[in-house]
Amino acid sequence: MTKNFFLPIVLLFISLSLSAQDMYKVKADKLNVRETSDPKSKIIGFIPQNENVAVLDSSNTKYFKVKVTNGEGYVSSEYLTKIAAVPAKQVPVTKPIVEQKTSKDNSNIIFLSLITAVLLIMLFLIFKFLMNNKPLMVISAIIVIAIGYFCYVGFMVKKTISGKFTSASDSQYLSFDFKSKDSVIIQDTYVDTLFTAPYVIEDNMIKTKQQENIILLMILDEHTLIGEGFTKAVYHKK
User: Fold this and answer.
1) Could you tell me which residues come within 8 angstroms of residue 46 by beta carbon, excluding any fewer than 6 positions away?
2) Closest CA to 36 of 8, 65, 11, 14
C-alpha cells in the first residue's frame, strides 16, 4: 500500500453505542481509509492488519463506509473479512426497590408533651407564688394534676367499648353488640337480620362497615353512643 504523508489514524471501535453493525477484520498489511468511495479520493488514514472494524454502510459492495477517529471514511471491501454482527448495547434496567413506609401519627404524643410542659410550668408557679397560701396552693395543684390526668386518658389511653347498645328510635340499625375488641354484631331493622363486622376506634369515633356503607358512632360516654350520618340515633347500653 502507498505510504501517505499524514499521521496514521487508529480506528476506534464505537459500535457498542450504535445500532447493530457488521464486524470485519482487516486482511491487508495497511488498509487505506479514503475520504470518499472514489478509489482516487484523499487518504485520511489506515487500519493495521488483523484489526477489527465496524462497517457503517455496506450498500456499495466495493467500498464500505467505516468509522475512524477523525470522522468516517471508506475502505476497499476486498481487504475485509466478515466476522459477525455487532449487537446493539444492552443497557441493564435496574428495577426500583420501593420501600414501603408506614406512616405513624405522633400528633397525640406531641400534643400531650406540650400539655405536660405547660402543666409543669403551672405547678412551678403555684408552688413559688402560693407558698404562703397553703389551701389555695393545694387546690390549684389538684386542678392542674386533674387536667393532666384527663388529657392523658383522653389522648393516650386507647378507648375500649363492650356490651350491647340499643336505640329506641326508628333507625336502620337497632343495636350494636360489641362482643370483642374488634368485632361487633349489628342488627339491621330494614332487612331484619344480624351480621358481624369488624370495627376500629379512632379518638372517640367507632368506625365499622356494612358492604359499601360506612357506619360511624361517636362515644359520648361508656353508656351512650351517638350515630352519625344515615345511622343518626342515640344508642344506650343495656
Assistant:
1) 1, 4, 8, 9, 30, 31, 32, 33
2) 65
Give the model's pLDDT for residue 1: 45
Grid cell 476497499 is found at: 76
The backbone torsions φ and ψ at residue 91, rounded to the nearest 5 degrees and listed phi first, read -90, 120
pLDDT digits (tens, 9 = 90+) for 77-117: 999 888 865 444 444 544 444 444 445 556 667 877 888 88
Burial class (CB in 10 A: 0-12, 13-18, 19+), 31: buried
Spatial separation of the C-alpha atoms in residues 138 and 25, rounded to whole Å: 101
Cα 141–chain centre separation: 49
pTM: 0.38
By residue count, the chain amounts to 238
Contacts of 187 (CB under 8 A, 6+ apart): 173, 174, 175, 177, 193, 194
Q: What is the largest CA-CA distance in the chain?
A: 118
CA pair distance 32, 121, nearest whole angstrom: 93
- In this predicted structure, what is the pLDDT of residue 129? 87
Q: How confident is the model at residue 60 (pLDDT cuts 50, 70, 90)?
A: confident
pLDDT for residue 111: 75
* SS3 (DSSP) at 32: strand
Angle formed at CA 215 by CA 102 and CA 211, multiple of 5 degrees: 85
CATH 3.30.70.20 fits 15-86, yes or no: no
Q: Which is it for strands 163-166 and 234-237: parallel, antiparallel or unpaired?
A: antiparallel
Domain boundaries, the chain: 15-86, 107-155, 163-237
CA–CA dist 56, 19 (Å, integer): 10
